[in-house]
Amino acid sequence: MLSEKYIKTPKNNEEKKQLVNRLKRVEGQxxxxxxxxEEDRYCxxxxxxxxxxxAALKQVGANLLEHHTSHCVLEAIESGDGETAVxxxxxxxxxxxx
Length: 98
Description:
The protein has about 100 residues and is an all-alpha fold. Helices cover about 80% and strands about 0% of the residues. Helix 2 packs antiparallel against helix 3 (about 80-95). The chain is elongated.
């Protein structure tokens, strides 16, 4: 598994800030849904918020995938570990596809 070997490719501060901010918004949305359920809000309104959270998390995943592919996988390919990196990436993509 490559993840431990190639964890050294850090995200820049702006990338980290954007991802953390998005996750904080998701966290707030989840708390909002909890409150909506406690208040017996209309099911459709709750489901719309759940869909918004799913979309936000998919965007975080897409950003991480882009970073991983353009940095970690590329670095692995350049160092001769490309087969392992691509295999690991395919395995993760299969999990995303479920």
